[in-house]
Every structure is written in structure tokens, then in C-alpha cells.
């Protein structure tokens, strides 16, 4: 009946067809909305190009390579440089799409328009052609996009909003975390596999995961074989589409609901008090240089999206063939819209920017003092609560650790912390003073009045380099399996094999390696700044000396969860030190003046011929905003190969020092106490430390006053 007729909400604003193209009813679209978006009457397609002279929309049936419809945008559907069209009656489940653009071809000027090239929408929310991990895309097959339903129910999801000082970041590779058969998950190597590991992450105590690239990438872009073993672009630092999640990381097919499994993962992480950060790669794309593929950016505006030499070749500050022209207004807009999309649609809590110094280069490659992109991200309202973390260097030699343009908003991977602390912990001479600087917040790099107190992300290991086990098992990199005659990867590892290169059955050497790993874990957790470590370090994961496993989709890179039981003592120590950091606020930040006369941070002057570094933190143990009581922690590190004796600071009567951790196993048989009551008391304050060991002490009130 007429009264039951359903009227489209858009009919009241005259959303009616105006033309017919290739049998489809169309009208000019919504020019301000980039990409393809479903609306009640059909789909809105918007795309822009400064150099194109015409644009065609190609519609494909799923899994087909020839379009069933080609809709050329009429001239009156173009405003400025933007093409926009609403196509009525389209059902998003029934098509995939791409574009073809025509325009001038002049490579020396960076113009590469080709009316025969099928182009992936730069703003695509889902990409076809890469859905099965390890399946090489045929050259004749073009990338296409799908329209995604954005109706995920977050069910009042509350974001943790954890302050930087309170974060403990766990860097991981989605596939590598759970693909090994020992992981015990139902959907190995996927977002769902990580979701199954959330109880483990909670038990460990970390409260932020940093996911290596999960944007759609082409793992087969550099496929080759070495000694009969396939090598691929496993890490994923070669983006195909910045707005689309990698569909091969989904455990199940998600046609037109791509990203649902990722959203479910993020929601459950957040519900368990764990933030989710993305490692984003805005410094280059998978299109490479002049010999690279041509599937998106090159065809829309090659001379805008990429930094080009005066001859039209690609600058390569990324080391990967091309460099995104990040401070061009069009590219700035794309990056800003991208990050906003991931924050609003996926509830992402933070971003780590790969080779972030590139983001501060001008169009000619020169560094800028106030890069507009970095400033825009720092002050964007939608990004106002997310963490912005820079890898403050690039492959072109620009190194900005301590000087990255920040506006009190950006944090940095502190590469100097990694390098200096590696040197110190393996016993290099003359490193105590600089180690004290790094442990107490690198204030020589990050002056609090200019950078605040949350600028330093402290790390000893990350995906790029040795694992923590390998750091004390190898003097040299062993990347022969990568196929480059061991020439790839860094030679500056600052590692020590403890006496034997690689695997050994020597019990003394194995015990020393365990001790060195625990020393590193304790120092990391007792350093001012935000600690970060690589997944698997907490149970002695190894890459067999490979410090550049970017191409190793095999046991070299997959976490072997059997090592968790084999190295349970390492895991227990990591877990204990994480909880210790959480319990003692004074380690992380200023929390009120200690009433016992100790300053906030005190690096003790060395006694004569003493080789023990001692750092004392003091303040009020403020939990949940309540100044509970005085708290004093002393970190003592002996990196020398002989025992050392030293004095702990004197205390007022009724207070004594207790041993909270001991990697030398002199005072605690297991290195950590079973409970707080099991901490041994240090009655006289003079201690002897085992070689290459570390102790942590806390002050507690004794029940009986002793004369």
C-alpha cells in the first residue's frame, strides 16, 4: 500500500539521477569525501588528480579481470581537480572497482599518465589481489578495491589512554607471533591468532602492542629463492594501500567487511587495558623506482606523490627505491586523512612512524626546521589523544635522535639509548656516566623544558637487529640465508657472544647469557622513559644470528613458543621486573618529594676503584592519585668481570635496605623473591656483587628498631 512505501532519506534532498553512463544512472557526487563510500541509493566515488585530463571508473565482478562496466566521468562531474560521481543501484557485495586516468606522458617532468593502466584507488579501504599469503600476483592482474561496510559495533569501547610514562610496549609481527606450530592457536599467523594470545600478554604485564606493518602490502614483491628456500618481503615495509588492512592477516574471508577481525582484536586488547599501536610506513611505497610496478600513485600524480630529481628519477632516502613527497599539500592531506581514518574507524591508540625523518624533508630532499606535516599531526584534534612515535632517522643519513621536530607532542625511538646501553652492559670501558644519563631519562637529549618528560622510547632490541638472546650469543651477524653474502644488515651490533659464537652446550656460558639478558631486562624496566622490547625476548627467542630477517618467512622469524618452558626463568624475570616497574611509580616519573631526604634521582659518586653504577630513585609511591608512602629504589649494576663491593646509602633508624632482584643469584636463589616477605634484608648496607650482575634494592620499615 502507498502508506507503507519506504522513502529513501536522501530523496528529500533531491538525491536523484541526472545522467545515464554505460547503462548506470548517475549524478555528480560528494566532492569532499575521498574514496568510495556506500550511501543509501548507491555508491559515491571521488578521486582527484592534478595532471589527469580524463578519468574512468572500472567496475568488475568479483575475481574477474575484465570490467563489466566502464563509466567515464563527464567533464561537468569534475570540479577543480576532483572527479566525483554517485552511481545508483550498486550493491557493494557485487562489484570491485579501479580507475583509469589519461593525461600527459613526460617522464623527465615526472608525468607518467597511461590511459591503459588499471589504478588502485589511493583511498581504498580494502584491496583485492593480495588476500592469500604467499600467492604471487600475476603481472596481468591489477589491484582492485572493495567498498567496506563501516558498521562495526564497538559497544561503548573505552580506550585505555595510558600515559606515555606508564606504557610498556611489546613490538610484534602479526604472522611471526603465532605462525609456528608451537603457538597453539586456532588461526596461526593472523589477527585472530594474536587475539588468542591476549591472556598471555596480560599475564606478562605489557600494556601496549606495536604491530609491525599491517597496511596492505605485497609480500611477494621481491620473491626469490636461495638454496631452494623461498624468500619474500616478510616484514611488510612496502605499502600497497595506506587505508586498507592486510587481508592475508585475517583468519577468515571478510568480503566487504575487511578489517572486522582487526577491529575485534583491538576492542579486546582495549577491554583488557592494552593499547594498540601501528607501525606506519609513509616514507615510500611498493611501487619502487623506475623499474618498479605501476599500480596507483604513479598513475594518479607521480610528480606529486614522489620526490623526483630534476631529471625525473626517484630520490631514494628510504633505501627502498622511492620516497614519498610528504610535505606536498596533497600528500599531507592523504597522510592526515589516513591517520584520522585509523583512529576513528579502528580505534588505534598510537603510531610509530618508520624512518620518520623523511617526513621532515622538503620536496628537494633537504631537511626542514618546521615540517608542516609533522606540525599538522602534532596539533590535529582527532589525533589529540594518540601517541606519535618517530623513528628519528632515515636511510639518507639524516639522524635526529634528540632533535626531531616535536612541539612537545612527538616521542622518539631513542637509538642512543640502545647503542650506549648495549656498550655499557657488555662491559665497555668508560661508559658509566653516559649509561647513567640514558637510564635516568636522557636529559642531555630531551631537555624537559623543551621536550617534556615523555619523549624517550627506550629499547635494546626491536625487529631490526639482534634479538635479546642473540645479542649475547653472537659477535657477528649471520645473514647468509638472506642471499646477499652476509653484506646486508648492520655491522654495528655492539653485541657479545659471552665466549662462544652461537649455540653451545657450555653451562657456564649459557648461565652467563641468561644473566646478561636479565641484566638488560632489569635496566630497561628501571629506566626513565617508555620501555619497549621485541616479542619473544621475554623467553629467549633466537633468530640464529640473523640481524636482518626481513625476508625470512620461516622458523628464523616465527616465535617458537616451546622456548617459553625451556627459558621459564627468563620469562619469570621479565614478568617480575614489569610488575616491579608498575608498582614503583618513582621509577617512571616524579611522584612527590621523599620525606627521608633523598632527591628524586641520585647517581651515586663511585667509591675508589669501584666499578658499580648505582642509581637511586626516591619519592612518594603515588598509586591512583594517592600519595601513599615514601618509596626508595636503588639499581646497582656491576658490568665488570670480577666481584665488586660497595655501600648502599645510609638510612634513618627503623628503615633498612632489602634485595628485590639479584641476577648474580648471591642473595636470591632464583634471582627474584617469591613474595615481598622473602626479600632478604641488608643489615649493614655493604654489599658484594657477583661479576656481570645486577641488583635491585628497596627500602622498607623494619618492625623492630635495632641499636
TrEMBL record:
Keywords: Hydrolase. Pfam families: Alpha-amylase. The keyword Cytoplasm does not apply. InterPro entries: GH (IPR017853), GH13_cat_dom (IPR006047), Glyco_hydro_b (IPR013780), Ig-like_fold (IPR013783), Ig_E-set (IPR014756). GO terms for molecular function: hydrolase activity. It comes from the Bacteria. Residues 167-581 form the Glycosyl hydrolase family 13 catalytic domain. Belongs to the glycosyl hydrolase 13 family. This is Alpha-amylase family glycosyl hydrolase. It comes from Kineothrix sedimenti.
